[in-house]
Amino acid sequence: MMTPPPLSDASSVGIVVIGHGSPMEDGNRHFRETFRKLVACLPGDFVVREAFLEHAEPSVPEVLSEISGTCQTILLFPFLLFDAGHSKGDVWGFMKELGESHPEVRVVREWAIGTDQAPIAVLQEILPPPDPGIRDLVVVVGRGSLDPAANASLYYQGRRLWERRGGSEFRYAFIGVTEPRFLPFLDTLDLSATDRLLVVPYFLFEGVLMERIRKATEAFAQKHALPRGAVVTPPFGDHPILLSAIANRLVRLAKNRHTVVPRWVPLDPPALSTL
User: Fold this and answer.
1) Helices (H), the chain
2) Which domains does the chain possess?
């Protein structure tokens, strides 16, 4: 087990770890299991609670109401991959409401995981190692967002992974919201120089969309007999490397107790206006 980083005066700090929530209970269970692992990485005096944006309980307002009477500082962490609608909109709303109802409580936030290096290190471990005798085709699959910066971040992270792994150029698709859509995209692939299809869902937790990716890949593999088959990597939200990186970010935030400006803000003037 990882040793939690030290922090003085942690008893007055509350952390709300915010999950998206899934209509599929396996997804919510995966988040809760991951939450417990993350708590084990944090100083024991922290008051740490889980909450969901939708589909599951408890809600964020419920948890904030619970801990606002005992914590001098509350940190909000959206356990999401990229800063899009929920992170850029909902989290600010929670902060504003709590600030109005409990002005004596200092409320700060962390941002989504974003373009942190940790997911790249995790995927390096999860992916089958490159083999000179196997011609891999890697397809990185994102959830898809109405936020163009979030979609672009998938390509950025994929490129960083390719820089470490090498091989043929990665391909990219999304399971929903934006293009190219994963299911029709599969049918456009030229497999003439491919031995193995590696589908890499850039996802934190199990859920409906992960199941959709698996089923589509399985159906595709049945239609196209690749010499080495097709592999779908698992979601990586509970990987120790990622949890350690998140814990370090939260400890740093608790020490500084102010919201930092993320790296993507200069590229997103509307978001800058909310800070």
Assistant:
1) 25-40, 60-67, 85, 91-101, 118-126, 148-165, 182-186, 208-223, 240-256, 269-272
2) 10-113+238-272 (3.40.50.1400), 118-232 (3.40.50.1400)
